[in-house]
């Protein structure tokens, strides 16, 4: 309970996402959830557990194992005035629906002269760290951030997991929500909402003066841990959570670099062609004269994600890698 007497509820990231889905289904009859195993099984990661019993099979729909088919059905439902939430089991499987997402969902509003909005939300799990090997573990959200016509979200906190869905459903454009699998069991206090979550701006999760650590999603806890370790050595790190990967919030990034004069960009995707590269280019273009050191990037190794735990850990960005990169920039 906070000083004002307002009760804070303890919850997990998974439960926060489930409550967001429950609220959406309760508040708007046009909303329905569809995807593989979202009904009787409760979702591959347990996010939709209990929703079938509460809302019935018309509102919580199990689909055949065909991402192209059920994402296409979601696009059609959105065009017909519904507000579908489509769950894709993992980001790797979303590639089977890439034609629907890129060539239909992202383009129809533009190609129709504004006559055909596609108010569709697609949720999917992303990221590694759970020993699920190369076909279930990659971070491909940067690919989708490349596509005009969609909004790309990466909730990394309990508050964002709980409150990003409602404004996403209100968006006339397709919205993709990437939920990092390592976050589902994260627990903490969820404060009561004071205002709607802003989908247009990045968030400063920790203020600092010596270096900016810029990241999103499952890498945010590692960046915050790195900031703690750096602080113990006298380095004040500011931690930026991008939250929305398309469109990127230029202002928060550049204003942070203007204060700290150094930057480390942390991205679980591969370094080549990564979102980290886009953020680094943005800093070079808009904040070059604020920099006192080259921009550092901490990304995954350029290999398919290994299954073996120690190999997976070696392939992923870790807190120690972030600290080392920060010291290269500061020292």
The N- to C-terminal Cα distance equals 42 Å
Could you give the order of strands across the largest sheet? 3-2-4-5-7-6-12
Q: Give average pLDDT, whole number.
A: 95
Share in β-strands: 15-25%
Radius of gyration based on Cα positions: 20 Å
Low-confidence stretches: 1-5
Question: What structural class do helix, strand and pairing data support?
Answer: alpha/beta
Number of strands: 14
Shape: globular
Number of helices: 14
Largest sheet: 7 strands, mixed
Order of helices and strands: EHEHEHEHHHEHEHHEEEEHEEHEHEHH
- Assign a percent range to the helix content: 25-40%
Describe this protein's structure.
With 331 residues, this protein is α/β, with parallel strands linked by helices. 37% of the residues lie in helices and 21% in strands. The chain contains 14 helices and 14 strands. Strand 2, helix 2 (51-55) and strand 3 form a beta-alpha-beta unit. It is globular and about 60 Å long. Mean pLDDT is 95; it is low at 1-5.
Question: In brief, what are we looking at here?
Answer:
With 331 residues, the chain is α/β, with parallel strands linked by helices. It has helices at 13-27, 51-55, 67-79, 91-94, 98-105, 108-111, 141-144, 158-163, 165-170, 220-232, 250-260, 275-287, 309-315, 319-330, and strands spanning 9-12, 31-35, 60-62, 83-90, 121-126, 151-153, 175-180, 187-190, 203-206, 211-215, 237-241, 244-246, 263-270, 296-300.
């Amino acid at each position: 309970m906070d000083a004002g007497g307002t009760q804070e509820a303890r919850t997990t990231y998974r439960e926060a996402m489930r409550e967001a889905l429950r609220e959406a289904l309760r508040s708007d009859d046009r909303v329905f959830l569809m995807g593989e195993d979202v009904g009787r099984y409760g979702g591959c990661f347990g996010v939709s557990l209990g929703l079938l019993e509460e809302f019935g099979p018309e509102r919580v729909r199990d689909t055949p194992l065909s991402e192209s088919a059920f994402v296409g059905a979601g696009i059609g439902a959105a065009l017909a005035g519904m507000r579908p939430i489509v769950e894709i089991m993992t980001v790797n499987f979303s590639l089977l629906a890439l034609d629907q997402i890129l060539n239909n969902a992202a383009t129809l509003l533009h190609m129709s002269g504004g006559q055909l909005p596609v108010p569709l939300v697609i949720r999917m799990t992303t990221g590694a760290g759970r020993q699920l090997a190369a076909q279930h573990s990659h971070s491909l959200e940067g690919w989708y951030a490349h596509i005009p016509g969609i909004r790309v979200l990466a909730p990394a906190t309990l508050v964002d997991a709980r409150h990003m869905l409602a404004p996403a459903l209100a968006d006339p454009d397709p919205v993709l929500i990437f939920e990092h699998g390592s976050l589902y069991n994260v627990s903490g206090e969820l404060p009561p909402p004071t205002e709607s979550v802003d989908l247009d701006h990045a968030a400063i999760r920790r203020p600092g003066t010596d270096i900016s650590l810029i990241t999103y999603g499952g890498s945010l806890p590692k960046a915050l841990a790195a900031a703690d370790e750096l602080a113990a050595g006298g380095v004040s790190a500011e931690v930026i959570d991008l939250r929305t990967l398309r469109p990127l919030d230029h202002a928060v990034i550049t204003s942070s670099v203007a204060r700290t004069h150094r930057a480390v960009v942390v991205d679980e995707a591969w370094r080549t062609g990564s979102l980290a590269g886009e953020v680094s280019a943005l800093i070079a273009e808009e904040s070059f004269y604020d920099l006192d050191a080259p921009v550092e990037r901490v990304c995954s190794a350029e290999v398919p994600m290994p299954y073996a735990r120690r190999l997976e850990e070696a392939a992923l960005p870790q807190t120690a890698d972030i600290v080392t990169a920060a010291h290269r920039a500061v020292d």
